[in-house]
Every structure is written in structure tokens, then in C-alpha cells.
């Protein structure tokens, strides 16, 4: 009886684990007009522990934008008073994060197994990679491109009909641990590929003429940590010499203007660039795979959230890529395709001017390797739920995103190089 009660308590605790510690925490949005506003938010960040949701850090706030951030329950009154006293325009996006975290699991799909309309934990995704490959041997093969800091296998799915010398599109999800909609999209893409192959002409053609390399979760250790310890974790889980803080921002860890701008040299920062470019096993494995397959990879797509943006190089500099006009036209058409389904509006453009300068990103790095078509997606939403997007939005988000991805892949197919 005691054992039974204990097991019940453990099950209950783990089911709600991701919601712990966030009672009374708020996510606020401040409207930033000028340098004076930026200075005030810096003051706030210097004196209060603040978790920036958008932009990724306080150093990246620009005039005429918004800053979304999470504040601890015990600081929320003081922060709100500070904003009011300084006449900063703000609103409360999330009034109690614990409630929002519980509300994200609103899928009507029942059961505990894998579901494309639920957020799946790593164990479930890992088993899914095996199953989907086994069930579709003529379309999918699974390989391991490396292991994470904590020793987990990084699975890569190659999706496409067998053929010699096929060009390829590489797509990854789950760079940032808390962006749960991202891995959900990679899984959705694979499902739609196998479900519509032979039934829908565009997908059929794509899979006959292209291979898609899908890396469902890049930062697996971080993703596991968001399920078990801290839902708001972003970075990897590697240890840092001389610091008690964990992790590196994998999307600041690539050799593309590494750590020059929009990244931090402090291991405790959420945008820590790491001890060197490719210091993380996860980014190293990804970069090695792309380097080893450069002759076939024609497009690089990386899926993040949130803010509904489609970005292309560069982010580490204000310079524009050689084919910037072409990339702009592709992005414009892709977001139009995306909006055609549910009316979801995306902005688009080069990273540095469209959001903010940030060095060490995988899209810039892939582009500089010679991959002409390199894009970063920032999926739903625009801040209403931010990183805690409800499961009930997975389907619509993935459906619309798929339209944009298929458009880009078709374009690449017609413009092989
Ligand atoms: Zn991200």
C-alpha cells in the first residue's frame, strides 16, 4: 500500500514537474521607443533576475520594438511599479506562468504514446525515430551523427526515395530547449512526407528528386532538462570550466563571426557563445555532417520559435548575402504561402535588420559554407503564449509551416546549383 501511494505520488509529481517553480511568475511585454527606454530596461535587468524571451538578451533590445521577459513572482510588484513610474508602456502577456504551463497540455488526443498533436518527451521521440524508419523502409533511413554532452544519440532521418546523387535539403529542430513547437514540426514534416508520398503530387516529386535530412532535436540534453527540471531552459547542458553555470547557446556556437555581436562570453548568460566555436558536441556533430555532405546539401533550414519570422543571412553583420534579392523574393513568397492557410502573418528579411545582430548562428554558418538557400523560421506565436504555445495549436502551426517549407524545397529543386 505504501509502495502504491509512493508510486502514485511520483507519477503525479513528474506529470506536473514542468509546472513547478513558476507559480506567480509573469511574462511582460514592454514597448521600447528610444534609447532612454532601453537604458531603463538595462537598469531593471541589472537589479532584477529577468529571463528575456524576446529578444534573447537585454543587449539585443532595439528602439521601436518590444521586449518580452519573465519575472519571478517575488519581483513582479517591484518590476511593474518600476515600469509605471518610468512611464514605460507595457502589458502582461502571461499573468501566472504556472497556469499557462498547465494549459499548454490541452491536446484532445488521449493516451500516453507518441502523438503528432502533442509535445513528446525525448524518450518518445527517440522511439518514434526508430518506428517511423522501420515502418517506411523505402522512404526513411535513420543514422546517428554524434552524441550529446550527456551521451544521448543524435538521430538523423534521411527522408526520400532512393536514388543516385540526389540533391538534399537539411532541416533541424530543437536548437533551443524551451521552443517545444520546433521538434513538433520536424516530426510533423516526416509524418506528412510518408503520409502524402504517392498521393499528393508536390510532395511526391520532392521526395523523388530530393532527400531531406531531418534532425528532430539538436539540443537533446536541454530538451530533456525542460521536461524534467526547468521548462524554461534554453541552452545545452555542458559544464563550463571555472563556472558553476551550465550550458552554451548552440545558436551562438557556430563559426560565423563567432561571439562578435549579440552573444555573451559569460557562461551564466543565456546567449553564452561557448569557449570556442563548435565547443559543443551537438553543434560540432551538426557542422561535421554538413561539411561531409556539402556537395549534396542545397538548402539549410533551422526551426525556432517564437515571433513568426522568416530570416536569412546575415545575422552576424549588417552586410547582405550575394543573392539577397533572390532570398528576399523566396522569403516573401514563402510567408505568403504560409499565410494562405490560417492567415498567420510573418515578417521576413535578413536577420541583423529584421530582429537584431547575433553572431555564431547556424544559418549564417551554413550560408558561408556555400549553401545558397539558408533560412531560419521563428514559428508561432507572437507572444500571447510565447514558449508555452498550447498543444491545440500544433496542428495549425505545422500545417501552415509545411506550406512554406514545401515552397522553398520546390524552389531549390528548380534552381539547383
Ligand atoms: Zn531559438
UniProtKB/TrEMBL annotation:
Residues in Peptidase M14 domain copies: 118-412
Taxonomic superkingdom: Eukaryota
One of the record's GO molecular function terms: zinc ion binding
Subcellular location, record wording: Secreted; Zymogen granule lumen
EC numbers for this chain: 3.4.17.2
Signal sequence residues: 1-15
Annotated family: Belongs to the peptidase M14 family.
Entry annotated with the keyword Protease: yes
Native source organism of the sequence: Otolemur garnettii
Residues spanning the membrane: none
Protein name (record): Carboxypeptidase B
Keywords: Carboxypeptidase, Cytoplasmic vesicle, Disulfide bond, Hydrolase, Metal-binding, Metalloprotease, Protease, Secreted, Signal, Zinc, Zymogen
Obligatory cofactor(s): Zn(2+)
Catalytic activity, reaction form: Preferential release of a C-terminal lysine or arginine amino acid
Active-site residue list: 378 (proton donor/acceptor)
Any one biological process term the GO annotation gives: proteolysis
Pfam family, one: Peptidase_M14
InterPro entries on file: CARBOXYPEPT_ZN_1, CARBOXYPEPT_ZN_2, CPB_M14_CPD, M14A-like_propep, M14A_act_pep, Peptidase_M14
